[in-house]
Amino acid sequence: MRDAIKLYLRRWASRHVNLNVAITEWVARRQPLRRQVVIHNPFPLSFWRSASRSAHGEHDFVFLGRLVSEKGVDTLLRALSRTVQFRRASATLCVIGDGPERERLEKLAMELNIARYVTFTGALSGQLLLDAVARSRIAVVPSVWEEPMGGVALELMAAGKALVVSEKGGLAECCGPAALAFPNGDVDALAKALCDLLDSPQRVERLQEEACDRLTLFDERKLCERYEAVYASILRA
Asked: Partner of 214 at 20 to 30 A CA spacing, among 15, 49, 106, 232?
């Protein structure tokens, strides 16, 4: 039934909508529509840039997002457990966010014997959020479902973080060479990526340098202007 509804909407959009906007090339390929352009969603990246000027070092990794099953935090916890085992050294994680999966994830951290390495902060906002992100070196966006775009990844890049993201969906497309990508839900591949970055500070620095160039594609003012131009063209027509 779900697929039938999606097919109907796609056919309707192809025939009757003046212009369709896909927020990534991945979305455009997944839902190919006639009269379609790709314009990324604008995110307030200027807010996040101040985080990169703060001191780093309290946590090796940070996750930011809602604690729901599709975000893959359980995959990240299992990968962190293997990272600790592989390196025979501690690796710390800060989980920023809240949601229905929080209690289950806290129990999973205890079952994996990594609770002492994981900090659950709950939901944060404003300066508290910026400060918590700044205290971590590497950001992980391990979504198991295919994110259409991945604004959190862009925000974390703007905050000066090196990134590890799942490869299917819009995350890897948006991050490009500024992130390591791993197959969605693959615990071993994610653990390897975490180990690689922990063992190579130079690689972390390269990803951070790539992020500066990559973010020029997501200037929020320019993206808003593109949307305004689309609306204006439709109104003129």
From this structure: 232
Distance from C-alpha of 85 to C-alpha of 200, rounded to nearest angstrom: 18
| Torsion sign across C-alpha atoms 172, 93, 161, 85 | negative
Domains within the chain, CATH numbers bracketed: 1-39 (no CATH), 45-216 (3.40.50.2000)
The beta strands (E) that lie in the chain are given as: 20-22, 36-38, 59-64, 93-96, 118-122, 136-141, 162-166, 179-182
The angle that helices 201-214 and 151-158 make with each other, rounded to 10 degrees, is 110
- The DSSP code for 40 is P
Question: What is the SS3 assignment for 112-162?
Answer: CCCHHHEEEEECCCHHHHHHHHHCEEEEEECCCCCECCCHHHHHHHHCCCE
C-beta separation of 28 from 19 below 8 A: no
- Among 186, 131, 135, 148, CA closest to 164: 186
User: Letter for the amino acid at 93?
Assistant: L
Predicted structure pTM score: 0.89
Tally of CB atoms within 10 A around 183: 11
Rounded-to-integer distance, Cα 233 and Cα 218, Å: 22
Question: Average pLDDT of each block of 10 consecutive residues along the chain (237 residues)?
Answer: 74 70 92 88 90 70 97 98 89 97 98 97 95 94 94 94 96 95 98 95 94 92 95 88
37: DSSP letter: E
User: Which of 38, 8, 10 is closest to 24 using CA atoms?
Assistant: 38
